[in-house]
Every structure is written in C-alpha cells, then in structure tokens.
Design a protein that fits this description.
The chain is an alpha+beta fold. The protein has a domain at 35-103: Ribosomal protein L7/L12, C-terminal domain/Adaptor protein ClpS (Ribosomal Protein L30, Chain: A, 2-Layer Sandwich), CATH 3.30.1390.10. It has 3 helices and 5 strands. The protein has a 3-stranded antiparallel sheet. A two-stranded antiparallel ribbon has the order 1-2. Helix 1 (36-45) crosses helix 2. The two termini are 34 Å apart. Bound molecules: L-tyrosinamide (TYC). Residues 28-32, 34-36, 39, 58, 61-62, 95 line the site of L-tyrosinamide. This is ATP-dependent Clp protease adapter protein ClpS. Belongs to the ClpS family. Residues 20-97 form the Adaptor protein ClpS core domain. Binds to the N-terminal domain of the chaperone ClpA. One of its GO terms (biological process) is proteolysis.
C-alpha cells in the first residue's frame, strides 16, 4: 500500500491474513403440515446430510420448534435458504427456513 507523506513514498506492509468471514446458521422451523419425509429429503438434498443426521435434525425441529441445518458463509447460507423455500413452495408445503448470524 502506497502512502504519500511530505513528498516521501512510504510503503506499508499489507496484512497477509484476512479476518474470517462472518458466518450464518441456516435454521429450519417447525409447522403442523409439512410431511416429515419431505423435511428429511430437504436435509439430504440441500444440506448433504446422511439419512440418520437428516432424521435427527427433522425430529429436533419437530420437538423443539427449530433446528440448525448448517453454518455457512453469507452467500452459501442465502442460496440454501432459497433452495428450501423453492422446493417447499413447489410441493405446496408451508415449510419455513431462515438464516441468522452465528452468535
Ligand atoms: N411437524 C411436522 C409434522 O408433524 C414435521 C416437520 C418437521 C415440519 C420439521 C417442519 O421443519 C419441520 N408433519
């Protein structure tokens, strides 16, 4: 980085490392209508979960009202939220999904 200081050119070291990007958790919300099998499919197809992990997360959402599908950079989180909402809408399920900054 070049800085002009009273006719002198001063070169400043640029830090080699960048701060880690802010991370976002994608959260699935419970509802009374979306079939359990559909939620498990979403978790496998969009979040690349095994069948066992997908069932665990789905049941956690079913019993506790919400559950974390994964933690991603902002763009990846937003793309996955969109994918869930598109799939749910296409099958006419009220499934809701959102992203929030990791505390
Ligand atoms: N509660 C739904 C049912 O009983 C299942 C469900 C689980 C819905 C998770 C949404 O994010 C969800 N069919």
């Amino acid at each position: 980085t070049e800085i002009r200081n009273q006719q002198q050119v001063v070169r400043e070291a640029v830090p080699v490392r960048l701060a880690p990007p802010p991370m976002y958790q994608v959260v699935l919300l419970n509802d009374d209508y979306t079939p359990m099998d559909f939620v498990v499919l979403v978790l496998q197809q969009i979040f690349h979960k095994s069948i066992e992990e997908a069932e665990r997360i789905m049941l956690q959402v079913h019993h506790e009202g919400r559950g974390i599908c994964g933690i991603y950079t902002r763009d990846v989180a937003a793309t996955r939220v969109d994918a869930v909402l598109h799939l749910a809408h296409a099958d006419q399920h009220p499934l809701q999904c959102l992203m929030e900054p990791v505390p």
